[in-house]
Amino acid sequence: MGTSPAIVMILFVAVGCFMAYPEAVTAKHTGITRHYTFNIKLKNTTRLCHTKSIVTVNGKFPGPRVITREGDRLVVKVVNHVPNNISIHWHGVRQLRSGWADGPSYIMQCPVQTGHSYVYNFTITGQRGTLFWHAHISWLRATVYGPLIILPRRNESYPFVKPYKEVPILFREWFNADPEAVINQSLQTGGGPNVSDAYTFNGLPGPLYNCSAKDTYKLKVKPGKTYLLRLINAALNDELFFSIAGHSLTVVEADAVYVKPFETNVLMITPGQTTNVLLKTKPKAPNATFLMLARPYATGMGTFDNTTVAGILEYETPSSSLKNRPLLKPGLPAINATNFVANFTSKFRSLATAKFPANVPQKVDKKFFFTVGLGTKPCPKNQTCQGPTNTTKFAAAMNNISFALPRTALLQSHFFSQYSKGVYTTDFPAFPLIPFNYTGTPPNNTLVNNGTKLVVIPFNTSVELVLQDTSILGAESHPLHLHGYNFYVVGQGFGNFDPENDPPKFNLVDPVERNTVVVPSGGWVAIRFQADNPGVWLMHCHFDVHQSWGLGMAWMVLDGELPNQKLPPPPSDLPKC
């Protein structure tokens, strides 16, 4: 019996709707399931009059926007068509009992090899706001990245004025060279990596660079409207100041958590952080065009890309009135304006309301103190290196342990415990083994120890962690990102942390809740979190150069006693090493 033309047409329309609107599937009372496909493919791309083949998702640079709602399930099939191994990290997603979908290569999974695929399957639980996704292997996130927009549940509103329009703006470097070659050369020679050639807004360097005027990001606005700018620092190695000439910005969210609103003319966003701001346009279109600028905040002793990216904020008016408009430029702090950064970061506070509480642990089960900074490794025999001396290579460490990636995934090794022997050890030190004057005169011996060492904590442990910068090879700001968790930033300061006098000053009422925190240059920061998510969770510096040099460690959170406190088995298509 044949199928009627009417039924065929209905099926055709249904399939077309599914392809056009990935959310239109599998409705549930808690949310819906949204399907995406990420084809990892090479794409010739030109910036600064330089054309090269880059790794992309679906041929897009930056990558596609992933839009979901709180309570939805995301199912993303990643298909690898390039020679490089790949994995995708959903930066800032809590991944409650879904650690198999977190993405960092050799931590949660083995990477997806050429010609293979993997389905990331996870639910957005208790989160709404701006996050992002990026490759999490070597330096591939230089081109493999994109926004992850989590809208509130349907019929839920923002705790601020409803914006007329929402606009994601991603900050990123551009390298004329292949970023993989850049980091490979650095690791081989032991020296610092070559710096980027430009910064970009949404992949566009803008008019301040040679041969780049046509690649300028333009934000066209209407007078008398409120815009929500979703700012994402997806840069590899650079903290950035950001400002728009003639306009103030109201900060309303950080790392997908609402904050008490505050107004500022300049923001500093570190790699791994997101900040939502409200931009209220002028009541009438002014006779001017406004530059938006970003340039680095830099504190280390190494070289950095000391350039500025420019975009244009332009009021929509009749084309005849665009002529002879003055171009206004904002002011930005000095490159090393550490006091400005400390003052700016101290303004972030949780809403701490009944609907959006600040559930900061009031009592602490376990306290940890980690030093964070650079160090050295010996140069191999019969080789001259380009580190601090010609006999050493640059390295980085926490508590003087430089993290060594294993050859198989830590979470797999942990889950199938018979394979854990020889992959990792569980003796990461809770405190520095040899205390010293961390921000004073550095010790003569700067050599680090290598190891794949984890901290093991029982389920639901309340943790307090102090992260202390050191002056070894120069004090420097470090953005620390914790996978699988948000945490509360309860205190920060300059100099050495004082365990007697600093804790009484901790904010346990409305501290900001984040997934990435800046360890101040020459200072410390204290965080607290509840270890309620079983698995193996990476914590690392979000400067990729420091992560490549070993600035990271991992937390192993054991299963709880109840079924909903245990990590489920891995999916059948989990990649193999």
TrEMBL record:
Main location: secreted
The record's free-text note on cofactor binding: Binds 4 Cu cations per monomer.
Pfam family, one: Cu-oxidase
Superkingdom field: Eukaryota
Domain Plastocyanin-like: 41-154, 166-316, 438-559
Family annotation (SUPFAM superfamilies): Cupredoxins
Cofactors demanded by this protein: Cu cation
Entry protein name: Laccase
